[in-house]
Amino acid sequence: MSSRAQVYLLALVFIASGIGLTLYKNLALNFPLSPGSLTRVWEIEAKITFWAAQQAITVDLALPQSQDAYQVIDETFASSGYGFDIRNSGEQRRAIWTRREAGGQQTLYYKLKIAQQEARPTLSEPPKASPIPDKLIWSPAQESTAATLITQARALSADPSSFAVQLLKLLKQHESIKGSHSLNDPRQRVSPANLALQLLTRAGLDSHIVRGIRLADRVHNQSPTELLEVFDGQNWHIVEPATASFGLPEDFFIWQRGGDSLLQLEGGRRSKIRFSLIANDLPAKNVALMHARDPNSALIDFNIYSLPVEKQAVFKLLLLVPIGALVVVLFRVLIGIRTSGTFMPVLIAMAFMQTTLLTGVGLLTALVIIGLWIRSYLSQLDLLMVSRIAAVLIVVVILMAILSVVSHKLGLEQMLNMTFFPMVILAWTIERLSITWEEDGAHEVAIQGLGSLTVAIVAYLAMTEPLVGHLTYNFPELLLAVLGVILLLGQYSGYRLNELFRFHSAADQ
Description:
Elements: H1 3-27, E1 38-63, E2 70-78, E3 83-89, E4 92-116, H2 140-155, H3 160-175, H4 192-202, E5 207-214, E6 219-222, E7 225-231, E8 236-240, E9 245-246, E10 252-257, E11 263-266, E12 268-283, H5 284-291, H6 309-318, H7 321-335, H8 344-355, H9 357-379, H10 385-409, H11 423-440, H12 442-463, H13 466-474, H14 478-489, H15 497-502, H16 504-508
Antiparallel strand pairs: 1-4, 1-11, 1-12, 2-4, 3-4, 5-7, 5-10, 6-12, 7-8, 8-9
Helix pairs in contact: 1-14, 2-3, 7-8, 7-12, 7-14, 8-9, 8-12, 9-10, 9-11, 10-11, 11-12
């Protein structure tokens, strides 16, 4: 395989790897591609209260799971004095609190955080076998009323979906009339959803209750909401019993689909569960990191986020260096701008990031001009190169100290950041420019100096772009793609932009 083919192959592998890993972190781990992205995070607190009668207590609570529109990112349990365990009952997770003996009013807490995602809320397949609810004990008159409602609904419907709607409407009309034939007997009063479930089960429709909460900011003591899910022979459909309307309500978080009950209590009475909610808009990256604590999430344990914060700050700056290097390659290979040193503009651009652009350009220009003047004087003394460079370095340090003190007295605090300029590189630059002056004249010095300054300014603008800083820090894998592009540019052997201008007249002739 030729060297050119190897370069193309490596470039393709690097670019594909960088873009692929970036898309994985964005799509699978929800890392945002744009800076400043916010994600709505809901903090939900479930408060369980009941009365214990000095006997063994078992509290069984159904736990929610992640959904298409909402992702569970954290959950905590508060159970002082209680044993605790999480059990999986089929596809349902349940929290179990136990205690040998308890008396009086008892309170347990379950807290979770869910992150709202851009995906539309859709329902996955529910449990294959829905539990059959225990039949309510009805009088003969009530049994006759239920049969009449089912018969009327069948006459007014054409399929299971329309049958469920008509049955719910007839039930609502019937229960609005407070009579002796009411199906909701005061002695065994149940919720409207449970009552409708009884009729749907008697009619032979496969259905179950969906329990959840309506997401609203700063809500306290919200009761769980019950919906119905009906199977029409092919698909499952959510139905709201109160309105007999299909579809999942907006901002509805499903807590439990199917199952016997949301909360079960043994050894106590008067159990009750209430929900309190609060919404916060958090940076999308922080939410993604909270979700990525899952041990199955890759690219986290071996990423920059695993480093101490102090080291992260250092790498946040270092990861911008390849962007500056790409700018230098573009300007030198495609445009043909000559610079003093290959990657001197990148170091200057990093110094500009600390001093701001205008202040940095002024300081750099002043230091180089003064340094060249001192270098021209030292050359007359016939010193060795090492001694000459060391002398220039010391003079540069003295100049920095003097300018710092003067700027502090004048109240120009930004000029105090001149210490971020790489002194050794400045000394070498002054030395290189002075040699160029002696060999090629002042014109070449001006070309290389202006070229270095131009490339440094463009690199500074690229490195300080918020989107670039966000991508390099949160998606360092993209640097593989930058490496692939630089490898491709390394194979370029065509005309540079400045050469097109140089040979423009020859091309016309």
